[in-house]
Design brief:
Blueprint lengths: L9 H5 L7 H15 L10 H15 L2 H17 L12 H9 L15 E7 L1 H6 L1 E12 L14 E3 L8 E8 L2 E8 L8 E3 L11 E12 L7 E5 L15 E7 L6 E3 L2 E9 H6 L1 E7 L2 E7 L8 E4 L15 E8 L6 H13 L2 H4 L5 H8 L6
Parallel strand pairs: 1-9, 11-15
Antiparallel strand pairs: 2-7, 3-6, 4-5, 8-9, 10-11, 12-13, 14-15
Helix pairs in contact: 2-3
The structure holds zinc ion (2 copies).
Length: 376
Amino acid sequence: MSRTSMPRDPYEVLGVGRDASEQQIKKAFRQLARELHPDVNAHDPDAEEKFKEAAEAYEILSDSERRATYDRYGHEGLRSGGYAPNFDGFGSIGDLFEAFFGGGGVGRSGPAPGADIAVAVEIDLMEAAQGAKVDVSFEAVDRCEHCHGNGAEPGTPIETCERCGGAGQVQATTRTPFGQMVRTMTCDVCHGDGRVPRQPCRECRGRGRLASMRTVEVEVPAGISDGQRIRLAGRGHAGELGAGAGDLYVLVRVRPDERFVREGDDLITALDVPAPLAALGATLEVPTLDGTQSVEVPAGTQPGDVITLRGKGMPTLGRGRHGDLRVVVNVLIPRRLSAEQRELLERLTDTLTPENLRTNESMFAKLRRALGSQAA
Ligand SMILES: [Zn+2]
Ligand SMILES: [Zn+2]
C-alpha cells in the first residue's frame, strides 16, 4: 500500500455513509481497529497500514470542521488547509492503538505493588527427607525506615503533587498534523501517588523504599522434590507508598546423593553381593536415609533382584506416609582367583545339576534383565 498515492475516501475506509453520525463513525472505527489489532491480526502484514488508514479516516471524520472541509474539497482541500496524513511518528501499531483507546497499563492509578523475587536454595537429600529450615539472603527493596516509607524527610510536610494535581496521572499529548492526540500516563513526579514530600527523605530520595540485603528463614517441608518452588506471600520487594509487597519464590534444589537415586517418593540403592553369598543367602547392611539397616539376601538371589524395604523411602509431601527403599542386588563375580579358589569352584561346578540352574525366566526376560531395565 503506497503512502504517496491519493488516500482513499475516509467514508469508504470506515464503511459508513456520508450522512453517518458521530456515534456511527466512532463505532465503525472502534470495530475496525479491533479487527486490525496486532493481538487479533498478527498474520496480516498489511494490518498496520490498514490501521493507520482507518486512524486517518477517523481523524478526518471525527472532527466536524475537518469533515466539512473534506466533504466540500476532498483530500486536496485538507492538504491545502495544512493537513497531511502522518502517523509514522507513532512507531508500533500498539502505540497507535493505545493512543486511541488506552489500555495496556495506561490508566493505572495509584502506587505500584512490589515485584516478586526469585531465589534458589540447595539442600541435601537428608534435609529433603526430614524437612529443613534454610536461611536465604537476597537483595530486596524494603520500606525506608528513616521516613517510615512516606518519602518525606521526618518533620516535613507532604503536599499534593503539582504536576498531576493529585490525580496520579497526567495527560501526555502527541502532536500530529491532525491536531493533538492525548494519552493518559502515570505521573512521573509522584509515580501515581498523587502526593509528594516537600523535602524528600535523604535516605531514599523520596521513594519511601531502599534496596538492602535481607535474610529470610525458609521452612522446607519434608518430602520436597528437586525443582519445586515455595511461595512466601508478601516477602518480595516492598511496593510503592501504600501498595502491597511482592512475593518471594524459593526454588529448592536437592543435591544428588551418591547412595540413592530418587524416583518419586521411592529411593533406589544398589547392593553389591558376592556371587557365592547370593547363592548361599546372607544378611548384609544397606544404606538408609538415617544410617544403615540389615537386609536378608535370600539364598539363590539373582543379579538385578530387588529387595523392597517398605516405608524406608522419602516422606510423601504433606501426607505423613513414606515411599519404599528398593535395593537392587548387584552380584559380583569373583576375579583373579587363587589356585585354591579355582579348585574349589571347579569342584563346585562339577557338582552342579540342571536343577541348580533352572530358571523360570524366558529369553526375553533374561535379555531385559541384561539390558538393565530391572530397576524400573
Ligand atoms: Zn526514606
Ligand atoms: Zn503527580
